[in-house]
Write a structure and sequence with these properties.
CATH class of the largest domain: Alpha Beta
Distance between the termini: 28 Å
CATH superfamily of the largest domain: Ribonuclease H-like superfamily/Ribonuclease H
Structural class: alpha/beta
Order of helices and strands: HHHHHEEEHEHEHHHHH
CATH topology of the largest domain: Nucleotidyltransferase, domain 5
Number of strands: 5
Shape: elongated
Number of domains: 2
Strand content: 5-15%
Helix content: 40-55%
Strand order of the largest sheet: 3-2-1-4-5
Radius of gyration: 21 Å
Largest sheet: 5 strands, mixed
Length: 265
């Protein structure tokens, strides 16, 4: 699948891609192995770019694909690396640009990790060092800028894919909950009617009143949104990798990062 990505290549649009396919060119290997099948006006640049992509694939350079692929082909990255993808979401004190992160939940290597402000939020950076590919929903617009600002870093230490734009390429528009509901994917009953405003209220109930249940509910809510990303990723890639009911059974209330980071490896 990933070797059939061409939209990032110079001079390739939908019509030229159809022309290539009509001559039997359907992958980077086809271009490199049968360059005479490539139209002369495209040949030199396309062969060079496909050679570069095959080298990147051999080197496992995920960042290269994330950086260079056109949005129309980014689902191919997720398809190829789905079992090595980590998913995350954040909660904040509000929706304004200067509101701060309260909770981060990340699904990584088969489990949820929870990070809470004033407790262990900085440990999220340690986890990111072990992440090969990070995915979110609308993270490029919301979550990632807040992570960069919170931790005073210029970029993430790992490549990142935004499922919102990948889903949009398949006519799946709107917010995460709306999209997953359309796909017949629903959160557990206790979270069905919960939204971001309630998450903010839970945070302040915990911080101002020490309400332990509010803290647990906030973490569970955030983790549920992370869990929704996994079946969405399966849908846009056409792959099946997780059992949703098992994901629901693994929802925290809390699963902090291990003190011994070697357990991540």
């Amino acid at each position: 699948m990933i070797t059939s990505a061409f939209y990032h290549c110079r001079g390739i649009g939908r019509r030229r891609l159809e022309l290539l396919e009509s001559t039997g060119i359907r992958s980077w290997h086809d271009v490199v192995n049968t360059p005479d099948q490539v139209p002369p006006t495209l040949r030199n640049s396309l062969v060079r770019e496909c050679q570069e992509m095959l080298e990147a694939l051999e080197q496992d350079a995920i960042e290269t694909f994330v950086r260079r692929f056109d949005t129309r082909d980014k689902w191919r990255i997720l398809h190829h690396y789905l079992d090595r993808t980590s998913f995350f979401d954040i909660e904040t004190t509000g929706l304004n640009i200067d509101d701060t992160i309260t909770v981060i939940v990340c699904w990584h290597r088969g489990r949820f990790y929870t990070f809470v402000e004033h407790e262990n939020l900085d440990d999220f950076l340690d986890l990111l060092e072990d992440v090969e590919l990070l995915a979110s929903f609308n993270g490029s617009m919301f979550d990632v800028p807040r992570v960069l600002s919170t931790f005073h870093i210029s970029e993430l230490p790992c490549p990142h894919l935004d499922l919102r734009w990948i889903a949009r390429q398949q006519n799946l528009t709107g917010g995460l909950k709306r999209i997953t509901q359309r796909l017949g994917i629903h959160r557990p009953g206790d979270l069905t009617d919960v939204d971001g405003a309630q998450a903010v209220q839970w945070w302040w109930a915990w911080r101002l009143s020490g309400d332990e249940k509010a803290r647990a509910d906030l973490i569970r809510y955030c983790a549920a949104d992370v869990a929704l990303l996994l079946p969405l990723a399966e849908h846009v890639t056409g792959r099946q990798h997780w059992e949703l009911e098992e994901l629901w059974r693994q929802l925290p209330p809390d699963s902090p990062i291990p003190a011994d980071r070697s357990r991540l490896l």
